[in-house]
């Protein structure tokens, strides 16, 4: 089976827009913050943004799940926290959710 | 992706310039001194091929961890309906792990363009601060060198570079070299994951429908910065769960993120 190498114009457009936006954030700090001062208050707010967005994604997803997903999620948290290995956390999580769905 | 602690409490001292040899391989905690962090630095910052090579070599162990994410991203992108070429293109030009995984989570037909692009931008706003922290060193480079290097800036090689430069290093090309290592592994592992993802049958049989949740949980653990995150995170969670019931589509993600930002700004005490 050969890999799918198709490129849809809309997808390419969205990807390029994401790339541009991301580059603006990366280069913007270099360019802008040498010229203006961001208050520590705003800086603190910006620092919590990624975490806040990640829990915002997780919240509704987990609320919709059941005991199997909750149990597997707890296990993933434990593995990620103890080992810091994403790959291991994913493998354990996927295995746990399959096992728990069979039991619960 | 691992984000290192960026306690603004550290920004008073110039301790970074004195501490030697703590450019830890693991990308350990490095404080972002948004001010001029090279108080004790008299050597000029240079941009050499050797600097690129040193950055690359030092970043390879870290890049192996990044590759784990890359494989997961490739599989998720493929499941979301992106072709191998499209997923690879995204990794090659966006170069921002968490933002890409979130984009794939939001992917639908038709693509919610404003939401995907907007959320990715907001998630990446932290890079603005990270780029600013590098300014004391990058301002000695030519614009092409500096603005070219930041394209390859990711959490991991930023942390390594901060450690290197603040311990007295003068290799201005370190960010580029370490970034090239991240980029190569990130793009390569995306190809691997996207190709492998296409050969897998019914995803839920292997628990693959849970992989996205697992990835985000792992990201959350790496982003957790201690008890001070509790209030903004809890606020974001609450707003996200409520607005997922009230708002169409996936706007609850941005709503939750912005709630966390507002809460943190409101309760901040200098």
TrEMBL record, chain A:
Segments passing through the bilayer: 85-103
Annotated InterPro entries: Brnchd-chn_aa_trnsp_AzlD
Tree of life domain: Archaea
Record's keyword terms, sorted: Membrane, Transmembrane, Transmembrane helix
Pfam families: AzlD
Protein name: AzlD domain-containing protein
Taxonomic source organism: Natronoarchaeum mannanilyticum
Automatic annotation (TrEMBL), chain B:
Location in the cell: Cell membrane
Sequence intervals crossing the membrane: 56-77, 89-108, 115-134, 172-194, 206-224, 230-263
Main location: membrane
Keyword Transmembrane helix carried by entry: yes
GO cellular component, one term: plasma membrane
Bilayer topology annotation: Multi-pass membrane protein
One Pfam assignment: AzlC
Compositional bias segments (type: Polar residues): 8-33
Region annotated Disordered, chain positions: 1-43
Keywords: Cell membrane, Membrane, Transmembrane, Transmembrane helix, Transport
UniProt record, GO biological process: L-valine transmembrane transport
Keyword Transport: yes
Family: Belongs to the AzlC family.
Protein name from the UniProt record: AzlC family ABC transporter permease
